[in-house]
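WARN no homologs supplied; continuing
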Amino acid sequence: QVQLAESGGGLVQPGGSLRLSCAASGSPFILYAMGWYRQVPGKQRELVGTVTSGGTTDVSESVEGRFTISRDNAGSTVLLQMDSLKPEDTAVYYCYAKARRSSSSKYWGQGTQVTVSS
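OK structure emitted
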């Protein structure tokens, strides 16, 4: 059973930076995709970014140019570097993983709160 452990959330002022980390364990192989969603109360979960085992990355338009997603060489940890943070980035950020490209289901982390406020 794959487990995802997130860290790095917190409170930051507008214009500041945070780095989220998510470590996967329990998988017998390198997971095809790992990434991040975020959610604010009353709204649907929004995809923030994804990085595949081949190194292909994609981030949403709302964070492009400010957030960078990456994976470590072992492929088991995904990082989200968040710069130039805005109050509208405030949300609970959830790490996710897909075992294979054809997988219809995802694994989820427990979520970490990011609050951008002065």
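The CA atoms of residues 67 and 82 lie 4 Å apart.
OK
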